[in-house]
Amino acid sequence: MLFSYLIVALFSFIVGGVTVYWLQQYRKEQPLTTQTDSNTLNHLESVLAGLPAAVLEIDEQGYIHACYSPNEQLVIADVARSKAVSEIFPQQQARSIMRSIYRARKHPHQHAIISNQQRWYAIHVSFLPNQRYSVLLQDITNQHQIELTLERFRSMLDRSGEGIFIAEAETGHFIDVNEMACRMLGYSRQELLAMRAREIEIAYPIQTTGQWQTHVHQVAEASEPILTTENKIRRKDGSSFQAEVLATVKTFQQTDYILTVVRDITERKQSEQDLQRARDAAEAASHAKSAFLANMSHELRTPLNSIIGMSQVLLMQGIGAINERQRQNVEDILYCGNHLAALINDILDLSKIESSRIVLALESIDIISVIQHSLALIREKAEQKRVSINTQLAPEPVFVQGDPRRLTQIIFNLLSNAVKFTPTDGQIGIRAYQHKEHMLQIEVWDTGIGIAHEHIGRLFKPFERLEDILPLHQYEGTGLGLALSKELIELHGGEIGVVSSSGGSTFWFTLPI
């Protein structure tokens, strides 16, 4: 930009300076004897009038002997004649003009750029045969502002963390690249500007002009820039790297250009592969764990069923009478056997869910009836602790699509927990109501010990018991109930959550109606 401007300005200076000098000499030495001479002179003056500059003839002492200035914003010709340079121009500009004149004594042509904080000017000085100097003064403020804008733009491009390539859409030849593009590929800027996009496979492995034009057409027809991530870009040393490429076609002065932004994603791809391998390993370990638990549950259940069955036979005295002490011992065995059986069933259910082997037996069921059945199962335990039960249920049936056995398991689990963690003479309750359109919400509340907000997130994880913050050694359980309830609720298409404080907790879940 600057070089091109200087060429134009130098040409203007040569034309202007020589023409002014010749015009002055022509007027002094040649009378206007013919119409042709007059036309020639008028033609020269019209050429000067078209020059975007002022032309002055100045001697070594700094006095202006002649001035031609079509643009009076630069110099007013009538005012400038016979005046010193220091009288016409600001001090800094006058010094720059005289400095260029002194240098022109040894070197016939001099140029400089000066400013007055608001405008920028180019000065071109040439030595004339009459021992004076021709000075071309040109306002280059607009060009200078454009140049500064381009420099800022270039600085922003070079500071970008991505490689930026601009190529002619028709041929694929690069017309500009930023500094990151050079570092990314190992080429100098001059080397890249002598290359075509397909030589480094900028967007796709394009080998022919036809493939390149097809690619450009696809990019141009897209409603937004095309982003691709499965690209390989070749470096100067022959190596390649994984790249994310964003390509778009822009038209400037009736010429199409393809703008490509390239980001090296080698590390990101490696991280994704490492993450995928870790995920696969975790899933394999989870499946192995689920298979192990399922097998172990089956192996444990077989002898356990015999223990439970024999205990029941002994209590029924089917094989002989037992005394009171023996009866109490057998009841303990039966209680522990049933507790262990329930634990094994929960583990087996979780393993089935994790391995996607559990299937719900969905049917239209009356959820009010399921709740009443669950209440009957925990009523005896509540009476033993003198815990009162409150219900807020619709008098008429409310039908939902669900697995009756699994929903009973969920509700019984929540009610059982409410009784377990509520002190003697406390209260628990259950209510059901339509929460949103096509959604039923069931809430189980208690006046128990409550849970701090920061610990609520741990409740629905398998084997998670808050033993570090609550005296849970006083309570039975393995931490599987809530985790299993959450999985079963989500299989039904609902959600589960809890609101808790020091005065008790409310567990809720939703079901599609």
Radius of gyration: 46 Å
How much helix is in the residues?
Answer: 40-55%
Would you report the number of β strands?
A: 17
Major sheet? 5 strands, antiparallel
pLDDT averaged residue by residue: 79
Low-confidence stretches: 1-37
Number of helices: 14
The portion of residues forming beta strands comes to: 15-25%
Structural class call reads: alpha+beta
| Sheet with most strands: strand arrangement | 2-1-5-4-3
Euclidean distance between termini CA atoms = 73 Å
Q: What's the overall geometry?
A: elongated
Detailed description of the structure:
- This protein has 513 residues and is α+β, with helices and mostly antiparallel strands.
- The protein is 46% helix and 24% strand.
- The strands form 4 sheets. Strands 2-1-5-4-3 form a 5-stranded antiparallel beta sheet, sandwiched between helices. A 5-stranded antiparallel beta sheet has the order 7-6-10-9-8. Strands 12-14-15-17-16 form a 5-stranded mixed beta sheet.
- Strand 1 (53-58) and strand 2 form a beta hairpin.
- Mean pLDDT is 79; it is low at 1-37.
